[in-house]
Amino acid sequence: MGEDPDEIAARAAAAMERADAASREAGVRLLDVGPGRALVGMTVQARHVNGHGLCHGGYLFLLADAALAYASNSYGTSAVAAGADITFLRPVAAGAEIVAEAVERAKAGRSGLYDVTLRVGAEVVAEFRGRTRQVPGLPPPSE
């Protein structure tokens, strides 16, 4: 009998949290993780705001990318983004709590496809689609 998939996902996520200085410095928090899925959050602070007084799109992308990373590495095999697109639907004000939910849509060989929905409360503020590739030779995220 193999290891519990939820345990593998939790161990991989813990290793990634320790190593991901970019997400940590941006204020990204892991809320939940499981095989092929992840939920992360971030509170929009003054450092995240652009010249219009709204959350900078780069931080929205970073939050979605962090969710993608947790979801795609949740099997304990190293995966990196191969490409991604984001559609900004609504502006996000300072002080807002943004939650990004990543869901695996397809996995074929070493390639994966993930959708990430960013919400403030029940309102969808952005949609992100990421493509990943498992990379042999990188240390697994659980080390």
From TrEMBL:
Keywords: Hydrolase. The keyword Hydrolase applies. GO terms for molecular function: hydrolase activity. It comes from the Bacteria. SUPFAM superfamilies: Thioesterase/thiol ester dehydrase-isomerase. It is an enzyme of class 3 (hydrolase). The keyword Heme does not apply. Its EC number is 3.1.2.-. Coiled coil: none annotated. Residues 52-119 form the Thioesterase domain. Pfam families: 4HBT. This is Hydroxyphenylacetyl-CoA thioesterase PaaI. The gene is paaI.
